[in-house]
User: Fold these one by one.
Assistant:
Number 1:
Amino acid sequence: MAKRIELNVDGKAHSIDADPDMPLLYALRDDLGLKNPKFGCGLAQCGACTVLVDGQPVRSCVTPVDSLGAGKITTMGGLSKDGKPHKVLAAFIEEQVPQCGYCMNGWVMTTVSLLETTPKPTDAQIEEALTGLKCRCATHVSIMRAVKRAAMA
Amino acid sequence: MNTHLNRRHFLGGAGALTVSVLMPGHAAQAATNGLEKRPPLDPRKLASYVSIQADGSAVAYFGKMDMGQGTDVGVAQMVAEELDLPAERVLVLAGDSATSVNQGGASGSTGVSHGGATLRNAAAEARYVMLEMASKQLGVPMEDLTTANGVISSKSTPAKKVTYGELIGGRWFDTQVEWNGQMGNNLSVKTRAKLKDPKDYKVYGTSAPRRDVAYKLLGTGDFVTDIKVPGMLHARMVMPPVAGSVPTAVDEASIKDIPGAKVVWEKAFLGVVAPKEWDAIKAMRQLKVTWSDVKAPFPEQKDIYDHIRNAKTVKSGGEGKMLKEPEKVEEAFKNAARIIEATYEWPFQTHASMGPACAVVDYQPNGTTTLWTGSQKPHFAGDGVASILGIKPESVHAIWVAGPGSYGRNDAGDAAAYAAIFSKATGKPVRYQGMRNEGTGWAPKAPASVHKVRAGLDKDNNIIAWHFHSKSFDRLNVSSNESKPEDLLGGQMLGATPKPGNTYGTPAESYVFPVKQQTWETIAPLLDAVSPLRSSHLRDPLGPEIHFANESFIDEVAYATGKDPVAMRLALVGDARDRDLIKAAADKAGWQPRTAARKQRNGDIAVGQGIAYSQRNGTRVAVVAEVEVNMTTGKVRGKKFTVSHDCGIVINPRLLTQGIEGNVCQALSRATHEEVKFSKENVTSVDWETYPILDFTERPVEIDVVLINRQNLPPTGAGEGSMRPVAAAIANAIYDATGIRMRQAPFTPDRLKAGMA
């Protein structure tokens, strides 16, 4: 049964009518028309749907839309301020990381979260943060270069 | 500055980083001036390939595709070179059946070698036509004219000059080109102009940046999954639990509580639609279906290689001068003092693109039907939609929009066909996207195979006879182009009978043996139609498995005859470029000659190095892999790869290097992880847990690429060549590390531990 649900996404308040069990991903894509989070697996196995909730990476494909309370949701499209790409996006662009680009939300949003808590991560800390994310085009070495570039910025 | 309508600039970092944001395909097309007035596409017309904008920049209309490796940038550089323009002044429009002729889409790494070469010739012709126009306008003979940066000027009187924009900007060329009469990959055109001498190249060899990266990260352009059409419905398929079974009863009441949800059922085609995507997914899960009882179609997974060995041959073929006289091959083996032989096995593998395929179709029975697709062959996918709908191909407008990854014939064409069927059945535009199990479990598969290799040696250990033989499922049980109902799951569900290609392939290398034979035989598919194990092309079709066998066996023979694997290859290759290539990889990797596995140990970790090489349509690649094997867990880690790469002239070194890096990592994934699992009823590899791929923590620490630039040789393609030898290099490195010979892929801990026992 549909229910009125309030969402705070990329600094804007939204109100939608939705099935409370519907994953957040569909609210973002279908109801709010946001394009960045992607459906990759619907199983929290790949990361293509990743958003930040209060700074923490969350798989929006398995997170019920009614479970967020007042949590502040940030999508990849909400990272940049004043027309200037966020430093992680700038680094991924400079390193020309994506091939198909469909997985980028996972890598970028997880890196943003990592650098918030650990501005100068070691290789081991980067691996610990990014393990489990999938990139089928296998751009893993470009991703590592971009994360290190972002940490230097 | 019309072309800059589609550019925006962002300033990042401390003002140091300027990012040029180019909109993707269809959005860029909308911003390209004059496109609405273009003459009808015709492969005989110059205007079908190139035009000049009002500002003097050029647009090239590319009928092949870039799938994220920068092929379009390479093509822009080829066109720019012949037009004497900088690369950034050439816009490449691709993936739209209304703006480019069908050059075959992404296919066989021919984007540059075939598609780019055609557009390069068209660009040279365009320059020639403009020189003719300038000659008349300036009253100067053509021989006295020169071009630089879009300006044509007189050599003798430099004040006499005219720009491309002034000559023809914003208008269309109205001249013809000599077309070879072919469509698809083999389409080519001739030019009256003399092509530029490679020694004068300025744009080749530079690392022009990718054009799709910024929009993919900043979210300023669509993916195919983002396409929304007013009134659109969302669709999902309901796939059979047992492969081959069909719905016999569908309880439509079982989804009546879901707003707007409806069933679409015809023969074996069963799906649901709803106005909201989540509702379509709920309906798919909730729908009660009775399925026909069918005999489980597959053998036990453990028996798959025996099945292949024992199955009846459907077709055979191969290469070798002795092919028609097999008795002479056997005679050569009879004369051998010693015969070495080995058998190698490779599993079914799948695309598992990052997201399941998506397509949107707006069927208009009395007008133009539109397809938005992520297919790497959008023209063919459009033809497929037309054939499914029973309408003329020219009434379908196919538009490519970036999709969730494509490495060959994946599920994208099937998605387009499903969306077409749904749109026709509902009378509405329909967006279909698969669920994860469809992208992994139901995508076409690279076929499982068995390869038997024999070498006959004389008493001095020289190889006097060589026989490489593959037995496998058809390489093209469904075609790699998606234009016919019988090649599409939706078409098969509605009754189209598959027409298998019944073909395979042979190793590509230049080894010289007195008697050399390369043969294959194909076997029947496990299930004739609507099979989750139907076989088709996956990046570098057959390359990894065939060369895993061929290059592992060369190593086996080297060690069996007391030779160093690098020295043996150098002695056997009959091609000077291959010799340079192998030497380049071995030197750069610091190859230590050896005639037996070195079995170097660092505690629990065995360390080894192995080499492999192969050709691919003129491109050649050698790889030295350095691996670590954990002797307790059996886990293999590909630590470092040194890759020497010769694909003729290098157009864009940075993009070439990144393409190679991606191929090496994907090949490492396939060699160490990937195996489609199935039960007797169905494919059971349905997600990332059941079809694991390379994890970030398993990426190589270093990929060292040596580009061999052959300035005077045409480019022969780089999309797949470096996928090919990696598995063999890893297997050979595992042997050097452990003395264990991997003859069955993937090289999982279980297989390594079995080898240690």
Number 2:
Amino acid sequence: MFYGIDLQSRLMLGTAQYPSPAVLREAIAASGTQVITVSLRREGPDGAAFRQILSQSGCRILPNTAGCHTAREAITTARMARELFGTRWIKLEVIGHADTLQPDPFALVEAARVLCAEGFKVFPYTTEDLVLGEKLVEAGCRVLMPWGAPIGSGQGLRNIEGLRAMRAHFPNVPLVIDAGIGAPSDAARAMELGFDAVLLNTAVAQADDPVAMAAAFARAVEAGRMAQAAGLMPRRDMAAPSTPVFGTAELA
Amino acid sequence: MISVLGSGVAGLCAATALAERGLDVEVIEPQDAPDPVSALAGGMLAPFCEGETAPEAVVRMGAGAADWWESHGAEVHRRGTLVVAPARDAAELDRFARATQGHDWVDPGALEPDLAGRFARGLFFAGEAHMDPRAALARLRARLVEMGVRFHSGPARGQIIDCTGWAAAPHLPDLRAVRGEMLLLHAPDVALSRTVRLLHPRFPCYVVPRGDGHYMVGATMVESARPGPVTARAVMELLSTAWTLHPAFAEAELVETGAGLRPAFPDNIPALRFGAERIFFNGMYRHGFLAAPALAEKLAATLRQETAPCVSS
């Protein structure tokens, strides 16, 4: 449940960098996603035509504050997003480093406090840091979105053990892996680790065939989720024969 | 009589193709019309590079563009396109190579000595070209005047060909604007003879030589209909990519900045739309100089056919 909303699809899709809105529309359909995220900082209120295309997709819109480097910018952008899309959902990004697009944890908490108090449903783009996660929950966030790797890097899940610890530490907070997913196997892995959803953009938008890649991710996310629910076998130190060797009859 | 509305790249190409088929054509430029955004274009005739993201239809439309412009008076530089990437973004080059055709791997320094030692490898699209879009449009306009085509700001008559770009949005509900920003630099310290594209995961940019040490640097792509001058962010991004291509660009004079709204259909493919009252020649997106010749010829062939019985009778 994401702020009281139950989603069938656990794949959330970004809407930037597609070859065209027509391809984006097809990719959204192929992904089966119910949540798409869109940036506003640079486009401003004049991007009405593109927003209309997004609204027509039938998906729930999760506006984001990508491109914001201070809490104030992010708060202003969130307020604009609320007006433009008529939603209180906001994916809160406060970038701390222009090159790695790593979040600024201090400004993130500051902006989350203000926005939660104003009634926003905040989806913070964060790291796997547990203390930071606690501060965000304390600020009022009911979802956390740890990165897999830096935005757009396609490096997958860079700190599996850290993410595993985060999952264990926040058993009752929906966790979404946001950023860094490169291949469907990364997405499947995230779901197998017990994350509630994955959010990705570049891996689909910049594939040679974004529509086919969207379908591939849909299947991977579903497979990972199904596997997690089915109960994954534990890893073992040694290959374990499935039938006993000792004591079997010697027929020679 | 055929009235072509608008004198950007779509309007001038349409009027040219129609006039060359002997059709009676005039070009209408209302006094309050905005300046054509075509003047801000890069002037790359690069169908293969555009094929990275553009559909096959655009690559096909653009195949004959260089020949068309050359046969219509433009000074076309058939120097190809060089595509490079900073060392840490080398994977972008492999992706670009996979997504495009018509290229060879090269040593960038062997083609452009100024880039020697800066990039380990590059992609060379030998079949591509570039030109100065403003000079090409001025030449087209002069040819039309020589052919007796009248330019005026009065009312349209007869068949209307609407080439007004983003201004046609009220008639075309699925038309949207994609804002683009560009710079013109005077960098006599840099010697590049062909279009160079620098790949970057977030700020891809191209540099097109305009001659006399001038370079056009473009272009941003923002899903917005916001008018007004270039933003500081755009200038920073474009300059930083130009600087990455060659540090001597830092000493360049920033001669001009420009921002305009590209008209685009949802599939980003330029198209003719046959409406009840007028024909729309629109959605040029970032492919104006590449696609307008093919669309203009298609339009002229269609209209020539329709009027043919009258001519022969």
